[in-house]
C-alpha cells in the first residue's frame, strides 16, 4: 500500500504543485512540440525516484513517466473536441491512477482488484448515489408546481442550486455516519446566513417559503438516507 501511496503522492506533486498554469497553456497550444511537456515528464520521473528513494526501482519511474507522456498527449489532442473541458481532465487523471495502481500491484493485480471490489460498501455507494441526481430529480418533481410561481429578478450560475443541494446532502450523510448530528444544525445555519441577503433583497414571501421548503426537503432526504444506511449496516 505504501508503494502505491508514494506513487500517488509523486503524481499529485508533479501534476499539480510543480506544473504552473503557463506550462499547461503552452502545452495546449504547442502540444507535442512544447518544451514544457518534456520538462513536465522529467519532473514526474524525478519526483517519483525521489519518493521511492531506491535506484533499483528506476524502471517503475521510467514506465510511469513514459505512460504519463502518452496519456498527456492523448489529452492535448482530444481536448479541443470536448465542449466540457472537465471530461478530458478527469479521464486523464483516471488513466494516470490506473497506471499507478497497476505498477504498485503488478504481482497480484487481478487478485488485489477482486479483493478490493469485494470490500466495497455497496450500501454506502447506493446512499451516495441516491442523494445525488435521484434526490435532485425527486425534489424538482415535488417543487415543480411551486417553482412556476416564483419570479426571480436575478441570474444564477447554471445548475448551481442542484450542485449546492447535492453537496449539502453529502455533508449531511457524512455527519450522520460520523455521529455528528450537531454539525447538521451548523450546516443549516450556515446556509441560512448565506441566503439571508437574497431573501432580504427580494422581499418575497413566496421565495422565502420556497427556499425553506426546498432546504428542509433536501436535508430530510439526506437524513432519511443516512438513518437507513446506519440501520442496514
From TrEMBL:
Q: Which residues cross the membrane?
A: 36-53, 89-110, 122-143, 170-190, 210-232
Q: Which InterPro entries match?
A: Phage_phiKZ_Orf197
Q: Which UniProt keywords apply?
A: Membrane, Transmembrane, Transmembrane helix
Name of this chain's protein: DUF3307 domain-containing protein
The species this protein belongs to is Arenibacter antarcticus
Amino acid at each position: 500500500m505504501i508503494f502505491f501511496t508514494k506513487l500517488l503522492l509523486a503524481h499529485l506533486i508533479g501534476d499539480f504543485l510543480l506544473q504552473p498554469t503557463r506550462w499547461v497553456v503552452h502545452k495546449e497550444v504547442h502540444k507535442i512540440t512544447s518544451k514544457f511537456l518534456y520538462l513536465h515528464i522529467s519532473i514526474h520521473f524525478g519526483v517519483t525516484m525521489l519518493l521511492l528513494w531506491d535506484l533499483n526501482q528506476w524502471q517503475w519511474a521510467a514506465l510511469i513517466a513514459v505512460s504519463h507522456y502518452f496519456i498527456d498527449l492523448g489529452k492535448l489532442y482530444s481536448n479541443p473536441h470536448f465542449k466540457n473541458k472537465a471530461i478530458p481532465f478527469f479521464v486523464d487523471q483516471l488513466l494516470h491512477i490506473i497506471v499507478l495502481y497497476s505498477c504498485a500491484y503488478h504481482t497480484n493485480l487481478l487478485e488485489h482488484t477482486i479483493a478490493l471490489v469485494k470490500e466495497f460498501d455497496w450500501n454506502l455507494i447506493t446512499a451516495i448515489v441516491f442523494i445525488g441526481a435521484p434526490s435532485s430529480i425527486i425534489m424538482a418533481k415535488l417543487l415543480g408546481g411551486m417553482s412556476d410561481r416564483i419570479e426571480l429578478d436575478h441570474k444564477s450560475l447554471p445548475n448551481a442550486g442542484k450542485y449546492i443541494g447535492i453537496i449539502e446532502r453529502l455533508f449531511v450523510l457524512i455527519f450522520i455516519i460520523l455521529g455528528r448530528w450537531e454539525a447538521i444544525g451548523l450546516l443549516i445555519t450556515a446556509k441560512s446566513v448565506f441566503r439571508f441577503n437574497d431573501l432580504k433583497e427580494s422581499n418575497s414571501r413566496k421565495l422565502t417559503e420556497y427556499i425553506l421548503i426546498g432546504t428542509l426537503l433536501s436535508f430530510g432526504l439526506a437524513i432519511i438516507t443516512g438513518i437507513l444506511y446506519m440501520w442496514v449496516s
